Amino acid sequence: MGRWVKPEVYPLIGAMTFVTGMCVFQLTRNVLLNPAVRIDKSHRKTAVLENQEEGEKYAEHGFPAFDGSQCVRSIATDLFNLVNNSLPFNKYVFLTTHNAFAIDDGLPRLTFTNQEDNVTQQLNVPAINTLREIESFLSSNPSEIVTIILEDYVETPNGLTKVFTDAGLMKYWFPLSKMPKKGQDWPLVKEMVTNNQRLIVFTSKESKENSEGIAYQWNYMVENQYGDGGMKAGECFNRAESSALNDTSKALVLINYFRSVPIKPLACVQNSGDLGDMIQTCYATAGNRWANFVAVDYYKRSEGGGAFKATDTSSGELLCGCNDVHSCATVRPVLLHNDNLFKVNGTDSSN
Fold it and tell me: Which of the 8 DSSP states describes residue 103?
């Protein structure tokens, strides 16, 4: 023992004591104060709690995370109430939850998880259960619109139509005949609501447009590369199935910004300034067109504002030429991607 009690060893002992103390402090702080840490099993079974205020207090505490980052859960702007719903559908920007069904809820899944909130929470499981949840949402929210963009693996003839019919969703179906194919404006949102044609569905299978009357996604929108390949700073290019982003014969623009393998802790950073920069880059690549759909993982997580701030900025630019939709002052959309479920006040998409 005596050989360690020497003056030259004191700095090492001091450093080790400091690091150990900081680790104990941070662990204790997370267990006792972090709203995202839930020890009780009953709490862990639920989706992430709606704790915006508590999360901000934690992030802005005098002792933030030691890596210098902050992570809070933000909330959406109620766009339809703020601006109104009197414009064509393609004149609004909707936050999109990538792989909306892949929820981190503690249940075993055959894929990575991409979201924390259940589908109802994303809009405000076997496919039929998810679709029934959407039907319940549409029934309870008669002014909302849901867009579903499906990564379609259904091979049974008319199988997709059957599952939508069984879920009671056909009464909300937006007809193929009203979808513009040459870049024209879509119908007004308020007309879609009045006619109760509030469910827009796209499929990744081209043949189903003729066989089942379900819109083939890339006849109506352009989409950038998804995954790691679509996250390179200063670059924005179309995924293989999509035409070029500046193809104005497609009225809708979908921008993906999420990793090939979702990593929840990194979502706070990627959903912040990096996302806003990519939206700007893609705006120029898409022929000076703002994205209508912005697809992300863990959509509420950011360093502050996050994906909601990014869509508020794009909405402001699209609606009134300002960098914040609140300045327009006059469709709270949120989308779900099945790969993306989008909600316009609900919608879904894919890759």
Answer: B
Q: How many structural domains are present in the chain?
A: 2
Token pair of 195 as six digits: 């006619």
| pLDDT beyond 90 at 192 | yes
- Residue 145, pLDDT score: 92
| C-alpha–C-alpha distance, residues 55 and 161, integer Å | 42
- State phi, psi for 334 to the nearest 5 degrees: -145, 130
pLDDT tens column, 152-164: 888 889 999 999 9
pTM of the complete model beyond 0.85: no
Q: Are residues 21 and 101 in the same domain?
A: no
- Residue 24: give the domain boundaries: 7-52
Residue with tokens 């992300």: 296
Q: Dump the DSSP string for 274-330.
A: HHHHHHHHHHHHTTS---SEEEESSTTEESSSHHHHHHHHHHHHHHHSSS-GGGT--
- 268-294 pLDDT tens trace: 788 888 888 999 999 999 999 999 999
Residue 63 domain flag: no
